[in-house]
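Example record used in the benchmark description.
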Amino acid sequence: MLTQSAFNALVIGLGAVLAVDPYLVVLLWSNSVGVLGIMVMQALAAVAVFAFFRKDRRGMSAFRVVWAPLLAAAGLAVLAVLALFNFDLLTGRTGLVNWLLLVPLPVVAAAGWQVARRIRRTDPERFARLTEVDVERD
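Model output (structure tokens):
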């Protein structure tokens, strides 16, 4: 949490030093990338739900574990593609700025995939713990 706060302070501070518009540059540029990233991650999560229950529905209805996740993934994928092709509406900019904002998304996704593969190969127990959630932990 401290890292996220420090990064946010850095972005806001950089915007202040460069004297850019706080809404049109700092907010729209940072949020538009996040919005697109979240839509893609939600679509992938819906596909993961379908894949998890593909062989064993665990007593749940087909609508709940097959059709709803597939419909959600399709809808979110369409929205993500529309957002990507109309990214200038999200950022208020065109051309190079949008490309520079979009490049980190696949780069970070590929890096995360590689880190997960390495953890899975070198430390299977740690990899298994990645899906655990401890709501009581501070």
